[in-house]
Design a protein that fits this description.
Order of helices and strands of chain A: HEEHEHEHEHHHEEEEHHEEEEEEEEE
CATH topology of the largest domain in chain A: Creatine Amidinohydrolase
Oligomer: heterodimer
Largest sheet of chain A: 6 strands, antiparallel
Number of domains of chain A: 2
Shape of chain B: flat
CATH architecture of the largest domain in chain A: Alpha-Beta Complex
Strand content of chain B: 15-25%
Largest interface: A-B, 63 and 41 residues
Distance between the termini of chain B: 30 Å
Shape of chain A: globular
Structural class of chain B: alpha+beta
Distance between the termini of chain A: 46 Å
Number of strands of chain B: 3
Number of strands of chain A: 18
CATH superfamily of the largest domain in chain A: Creatinase/methionine aminopeptidase superfamily
Radius of gyration of chain B: 19 Å
């Protein structure tokens, strides 16, 4: 939706996009009070309220445009009720799932898209710097979320995700950053695991993953896990370049298991316009073999080894958004790779 | 300045590039039109955009 219209859906919307360049696209959006803003943001002028049923509005427009009897490409996860409305309202049409095509188109980024991702990466770096400066014993995980968001909100940044979790290094119970922050109060001796992602252009976030300690240095066990995570990151990043394939990544990732650890989170994923292929885990933690995939120049990926113990009670995660080049990868972030110590 | 420019906006050239790439793929797939559905990420965590009208069932409903 946003890729073709510049409008990031606030509620729900249908976009009718004709192949004929002379025909303007049309957007039918919810809700009525969202339409004035949608008109200011959308790249073209045909922006309309979707009425009491957005799918019915789309059907009516498809009929008026003369597309009702032909092949129509569907993109996105259309609710079953809406799909029923399309089938019933356009009985002569042949629907074709075009979603995978759109994902494929979005894998390689243009210069403008890379610029947008660099802005997102800058916001993420600011968030890490803010946590380094302000995370301390006595504040809650909720306040960590406030620290993160306040670092970029005033510059137009918005949160994509901020996964964070804390646990005492002496009595660990968490191995991966959490999707929701809790009311837990940070204590001296905690480890803070983070996955931070923010954007300026909707859908074009940076992403950075760093561990922190609170009020002390890492324990030897955490330091070793961190060292393994960084080594895994470097080994994987070093094999990725234009023309490399996923088998090379998976070979490099075997180091994690040889070092005595496993993973919880995905190891590698595309980012920028969605959670994109290749989505990789290690061979022994994958539910099924990774499909063949060859990296191309200007794909953007996150390498993010989340090194954990087999009992899933202890872990660290490092990583960041990278651009694939002919010679290797380029980080879109400027914050250095390190185990950050707050108030140590 | 057009008030559109107060929001993040890719350039005309970028949209021309996107449209050309997508239309080429549509031609290859023999598709005169796309119907693209979008839903806000935060809405995926909430209920389906649906309200009950009565005890008999529901209708898709969007109050303004």
């Amino acid at each position: 939706m946003q890729y073709l219209s510049n409008y990031a859906t606030t509620r729900e919307a249908f976009l009718i996009f004709p192949a004929e360049p002379e025909l303007e696209p049309a957007l039918f959006a919810q809700m009525y009070n969202h339409i004035p803003t949608a008109r200011r943001i959308t790249h073209f002028t045909g922006v309309h309220w979707g009425g009491p049923d957005t799918a019915e509005a789309a059907v009516e427009h498809v009929r008026q445009r003369g597309f009702a009897g032909g092949r129509i490409g569907l993109v996105g996860r259309i609710p079953m009720g809406h799909y029923g409305t399309l089938k019933q309202g356009l009985p002569e049409a042949t629907f074709v799932d075009f979603t995978a095509w759109m994902l494929k188109i979005r894998l390689v980024k243009s210069d403008e898209e890379l610029d947008a991702l660099r802005i997102g990466a800058e916001f993420c770096d600011r968030a890490v710097e803010a946590l380094e400066r302000e995370a301390r014993p006595g504040i809650s995980e909720y306040e960590l979320a406030a620290i993160v968001q306040c670092s970029y909100l005033g510059s137009g940044g918005r949160s994509h995700i901020h996964y964070m979790a804390t646990t005492p290094m002496s009595n660990t119970s968490v191995c991966v950053p959490a999707q929701y922050q809790s009311k837990r109060i940070l204590e001296k001796g905690d480890v803070l695991l983070t996955e931070l992602s923010a954007h300026y252009f909707e859908g074009y976030p940076g992403q950075i993953l760093r561990p922190f300690t609170i009020g002390t240095q890492p324990t030897p066990q955490y330091q070793r896990m961190y060292d393994v995570a960084v080594e895994a990151f470097n080994r994987i990043a070093n094999v990725i370049r234009t023309g490399a394939n996923t088998e090379e990544v998976l070979d490099a990732a075997e180091y994690i298991h040889h070092a005595g650890y496993s993973i919880c989170d995905d190891l590698v994923h595309g980012l920028g316009g969605g959670y994109l292929p290749p989505i990789l885990r290690t061979r022994r933690t994958s539910a099924r073999p990774a499909p063949p995939f060859t990296f191309k120049e200007n794909m953007t990926i996150v390498v993010q080894p989340n090194i954990i113990t087999e009992d899933e009670r202890m872990g660290v995660q490092v990583g960041e958004l990278l651009r694939v080049t002919n010679k290797g990868v380029e980080s879109l972030h400027r914050y250095p790779m390190r185990f950050i110590q707050c108030n140590a | 300045m057009d008030d559109k420019n107060f929001y993040p906006h890719f350039t005309q050239a970028e949209f021309a590039r996107r449209y050309a790439v997508v239309r080429a793929a549509m031609q290859e797939a023999d598709l005169p039109a796309l119907l693209v559905y979008g839903i806000a990420i935060h809405e995926q965590r909430s209920a389906v955009p649906f309200q009950l009208r009565d005890n008999e069932g529901g209708i898709p409903y969007f109050p303004c």
